[in-house]
Automatic annotation (TrEMBL):
Transmembrane segments: 26-43, 50-65, 77-96
Transmembrane helix keyword on record: yes
Protein name: Uncharacterized protein
Organism lineage string: Bacteria, Pseudomonadati, Bacteroidota, Flavobacteriia, Flavobacteriales
Keyword annotations: Membrane, Transmembrane, Transmembrane helix
Length: 102
């Protein structure tokens, strides 16, 4: 129970990008593209933020279908994922100029 997070997910994405010809390589590249969008000059646009969130969640969603769900059943995975999704949604909904004004 709860054995999915042996290495940080960013390292898993980088390693899987080198696994040529697999479906996981496709999702790893998509995840890396989502991370690259975070640092682009277009990230202030709401649609780019939504696209970046979706691109970064797709590799995790693909892992949900590849391994048993019991592997994800522990707080060391669920809490950080919930915080990430929650904060990302807040940053999408609240305009950046409101955050900078405070």
């Amino acid at each position: 129970m709860g054995q999915m997070i042996g290495i940080p997910f960013i390292f898993w994405l980088i390693v899987e990008m080198a696994d040529f010809g697999s479906e996981r390589q496709f999702f790893a590249i998509i995840g890396i593209l989502g991370i690259v969008l975070l640092f682009s000059k277009w990230y202030s646009k709401r649609t780019v933020k939504i696209a970046s969130l979706i691109l970064m969640l797709l590799p995790i969603a693909s892992r949900f279908f590849e391994v048993p769900l019991e592997k994800f059943d522990y707080h060391g995975f669920q809490i950080p994922l919930s915080i990430y999704i929650g904060l990302s949604i807040i940053l999408i909904l609240v305009p950046a100029n409101k955050l900078n004004a405070q």
